[in-house]
């Protein structure tokens, strides 16, 4: 990395000019003096690379626009490259070229970091430059820097996040308005939260990429987004959201990364039942939050807007300022060593479950269903029945069970003649199930004892 004079502006190039790019350009141009005053560093926007340079972009001076991102990322006049293109191609190649050319890189690209974060970090480290990605997880919420720096010495036990605003909006609407998944999704699309093809959000791909990034930072290892098992929210009936509420729970799509008994790591994304008193239960609408549990720090939660032009640009700007300070002091942000991740197979994950099963309301049916649970070592904690005329809906809460055993139970239930349909299968998070564990739960902690 070339040394630069302390008193000159740090030159910034932006790749991509979508919602976040435009918001960032607006901040850099309209509030340049304010940013310099508050941060102590002067930033100069020197170029904006776009796919179609002939298109007029309101608020972006034509002389800054270029169609040649490849030239911009190696331009000796550029100190910091901000990648806001998204996706893997051509973002990966451009980021690699920028790092190799000795530029600091700031990116909001969760897909890129989740897939290639380790190799990009190695390239950055070899070049002695920053690779910063605060905006890649949970938009405006500062969670990357706290995990990397404030909690650098912490023995983190678990990170649990609501990291997808679209699904949180849908689940909030289902819980509070009693509407179906389809109607809530339609409303999310109408308001611009959900895409026309909503699969990246509702099937958990977006949250899985973010879970991988959080897990890698919290547990100092390399986790790839594609290795994160995920379950989306599409199969959750409104009746189960309502039943969960009656039982004192809220349904949330959670990204979970936790250390388990033998030091293995479980990283996963799934819809979950969260006790109504848990801090994550209060996160409504399109907001995000990340709840961290560590041995010394105890429980902490960061909350805010997980998407949107200005909130995401705010996180990007913080990284640009950090990178600029580091440039001026000829340093780079700490990059702690990371080992390989030892991931627990999904079938070995253990937690209590909520299961609903629609059955024929006839003598002997409950016994047959309960026998299936018992045959696979899944212990029932409580059961209630909702009548549906000729049919009934059985709602089970289990004790802590192995996922492989629950899946085997579900397969057997699906084959029983009296079972019409298996409804929601939701993991219960944020509870202490074992009677003995209740005594060691952190005093005043969020973990409710399962009643
Ligand atoms: N689509 C995401 C969300 C934002 O709904 O939270 C970008 O990751």
What does this structure look like?
The protein has 15 helices and 21 strands. It is an alpha/beta fold and 451 residues long. The chain has 3 domains: 10-139 and 309-340, Rossmann fold; 152-305, 2-Layer Sandwich (Dihydrodipicolinate Reductase, domain 2), CATH 3.30.360; 346-428, 2-Layer Sandwich (Alpha-Beta Plaits), CATH 3.30.70. Strands 12-11-7-9-10-19-15-17-16 form a 9-stranded mixed β-sheet, with helices on both faces. Strands 3-2-1-4-5-6 form a 6-stranded parallel β-sheet, with helices on both faces. Helix 13 (365-375) runs antiparallel to helix 14 (403-415). The longest helix is centred in the last third of the chain and has 20 residues, at 309-328. The protein is elongated, with a radius of gyration of 24 Å. The model is unreliable at 436-443 (pLDDT under 50). The chain binds L-homoserine.
What are the salient characteristics of this protein?
Rossmann fold, 6-stranded parallel sheet, 451 residues, binds L-homoserine, 35% helix, single chain, 3 domains, Alpha-Beta Plaits, 15 helices, elongated, Dihydrodipicolinate Reductase, domain 2, 9-stranded mixed sheet, alpha/beta
Specify the overall morphology.
elongated
CATH topology of the largest domain: Rossmann fold
CATH superfamily of the largest domain: NAD(P)-binding Rossmann-like Domain
> What class, by secondary structure content?
alpha/beta
Question: Rg to the nearest angstrom?
Answer: 24 Å
Secondary-structure arrangement, i.e. CATH architecture of the largest domain = 3-Layer(aba) Sandwich
Task: Identify the CATH class of the largest domain.
Answer: Alpha Beta
Q: Describe the main β-sheet briefly.
A: 9 strands, mixed
- How many domains make up the 3D coordinates? 3
Oligomer designation: single chain
The separation of the N and C termini measures 58 Å
Read across the widest sheet, the strand sequence of neighbours is 12-11-7-9-10-19-15-17-16
Rounded mean pLDDT score: 94
Number of strands: 21
Give the strand content: 25-35%
Question: What ligands does this structure carry?
Answer: L-homoserine
Low-confidence stretches: 436-443
């Amino acid at each position: 990395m070339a040394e630069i004079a302390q008193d000159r502006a740090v030159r910034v190039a932006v790749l991509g000019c979508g919602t976040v790019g435009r918001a960032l350009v607006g901040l850099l141009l309209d509030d340049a003096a304010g940013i310099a005053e508050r941060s102590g560093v002067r930033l100069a926007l020197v170029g904006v690379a776009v796919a179609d340079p002939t298109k007029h972009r309101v608020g972006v001076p034509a002389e800054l626009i270029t169609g040649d991102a490849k030239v911009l990322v190696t331009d000796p006049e550029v100190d910091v490259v901000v990648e806001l293109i998204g996706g893997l191609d051509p973002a990966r190649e451009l980021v690699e070229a920028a790092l190799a050319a000795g530029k600091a890189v700031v990116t909001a690209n969760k897909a890129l970091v989740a897939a290639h974060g380790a190799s990009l970090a190695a390239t950055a480290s070899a070049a002695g430059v920053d690779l910063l990605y605060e905006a890649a997880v949970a938009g405006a919420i500062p969670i990357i820097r706290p995990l990397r720096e404030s909690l650098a010495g912490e023995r983190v036990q678990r990170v649990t996040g609501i990291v997808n605003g679209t699904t949180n909006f849908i689940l909030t609407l289902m819980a509070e308005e009693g509407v179906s998944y389809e109607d809530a999704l339609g409303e999310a699309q109408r308001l611009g939260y959900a895409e026309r093809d909503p699969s990246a959000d509702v099937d958990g791909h977006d949250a899985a990429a973010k879970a991988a990034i959080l897990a890698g930072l919290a547990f100092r290892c390399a986790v790839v987004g594609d290795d994160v098992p995920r379950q989306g929210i599409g199969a959750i009936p409104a009746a189960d959201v309502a039943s969960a509420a009656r039982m004192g729970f809220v349904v949330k799509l959670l990204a979970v990364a936790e250390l388990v008994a033998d030091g293995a790591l479980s990283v996963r994304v799934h819809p979950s039942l969260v006790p109504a008193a848990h801090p994550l239960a209060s996160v409504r609408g399109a907001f995000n939050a990340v709840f961290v549990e560590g041995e010394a720090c105890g429980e902490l939660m960061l909350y805010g807007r997980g998407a949107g032009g200005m909130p995401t640009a705010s996180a990007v700007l913080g990284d640009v300022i950090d990178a600029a300070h580091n440039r001026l002091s000829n340093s780079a942000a700490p990059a702690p060593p990371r080992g390989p991740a030892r991931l627990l197979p999904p079938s070995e994950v253990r937690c209590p479950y909520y299961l609903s099963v629609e059955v024929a309301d006839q003598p002997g049916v409950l016994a047959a269903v309960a026998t299936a649970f018992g045959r696979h070592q899944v212990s029932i904690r409580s059961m209630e029945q909702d009548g549906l005329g000729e049919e009934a809906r059985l709602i089970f809460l289990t004790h802590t069970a192995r996922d492989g055993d629950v899946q085997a139970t579900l397969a057997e239930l699906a084959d029983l003649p009296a079972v019409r349909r298996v409804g929601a299968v939701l993991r219960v998070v944020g509870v202490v199930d074992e009677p003995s564990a209740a005594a060691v739960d952190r005093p005043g902690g969020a973990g409710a004892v399962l009643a």
